[in-house]
DNA sequence: TCATTTTGCTTAGCCTGTTGAAATATCTTC
DNA sequence: GAAGATATTTCAACAGGCTAAGCAAAATGA
């Protein structure tokens, strides 16, 4: 087995771990990974418009509407008409939504961040360099204005 | 922005490239990424049982039944009752299915493999080491006998 | 000013993937 | 051969995704 195979296998493990994380999250947080991702994005600043979220996640507005519908039904977020531009809807997170995502298990990220930060400086540097190299190899010529979608998002650090 | 963030962002790019690849594949090969993954598994040996495929992909038998239904409708695979154990169904790939996956575009892997193999020895070694390190960080204590699922599977090399 | 275009969002209808529960058919075993 | 285990399928229900169409509110421009 050559290095190419080994590297592909490692990539596969990374993808799979992410997928499994998404499923676990779905069960433990009482919502699906996609819904959780929407919550995370809204929680970053406390509010966001459907279009903005849709763009970041790489889905259409229509899809976002139905996702928000479900989160509203769960009392996790609220819709509020914008004052400035009354075409816009502002989706804000509710107190319940906030505690839910704060308390949500985030095993993948926690695990990764903790271990990453425990590494020595040179090793961190090496990993960052390698990951960026791989990312560049994979998403090259795909840099268009397309959205920042990611499956079960590994999330923002810290 | 510290190194942890940078590394998470790179990971996110990797995941996203994989996701986008799955979507492109779906359009160009005339089937979805999930269906394609089923085809790949069957093609490994030319045949497989629904349960075996379901296990490898981490879905239930019921799901596999409906996936196979669709592939049968597309004339990509066939169901054949096993002779030995007539409870079992053997899913075999058709000639059409075989040519379809042989000719399927595999831009992600091609791109990756080509670039990887063009790298210098020391760089390949560095990337393999880094990817394995990251994979270990992510899928630690998750090594159980669970299935070999991966989204839009990066695929087997060569 | 006001008609036209653009923008932001929702509705409606349709697909795929997924599951759990129940039904069917076929071994296996005592 | 009856009871239990195993392999699949069927069915009903949902989540997520899309497109097309519609509506309401800005923005534009003649």
UniProtKB/TrEMBL annotation, chains A, B:
GO terms for molecular function: DNA-binding transcription factor activity. GO terms for biological process: response to stress. Residues 4-136 form the HTH marR-type domain. It comes from the Bacteria. It holds the Pfam family MarR. PROSITE patterns: HTH_MARR_2. Gene3D superfamilies: Winged helix-like DNA-binding domain superfamily/Winged helix DNA-binding domain. This is MarR family transcriptional regulator.
């Amino acid at each position: 087995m050559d290095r190419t195979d080994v590297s592909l296998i490692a990539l596969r493990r990374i993808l799979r771990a992410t997928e499994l994380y998404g499923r676990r999250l779905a069960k433990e947080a009482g919502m699906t990974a996609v819904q959780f991702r929407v919550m995370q994005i809204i929680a970053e600043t406390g509010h966001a418009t459907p279009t903005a979220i849709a763009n970041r996640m790489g889905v259409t507005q229509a899809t976002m509407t139905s996702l928000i519908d479900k989160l509203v039904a769960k009392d996790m977020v609220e819709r509020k008409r914008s004052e400035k531009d009354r075409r816009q809807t502002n989706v804000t997170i509710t107190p319940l939504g906030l505690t839910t995502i704060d308390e949500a298990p985030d095993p993948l990220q926690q695990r990764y961040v903790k271990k990453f930060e425990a590494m020595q400086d040179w090793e961190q540097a090496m990993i960052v360099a390698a990951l960026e190299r791989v990312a560049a190899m994979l998403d090259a010529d795909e840099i268009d204005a397309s959205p920042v979608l990611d499956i079960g998002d590994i999330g923002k650090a810290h």
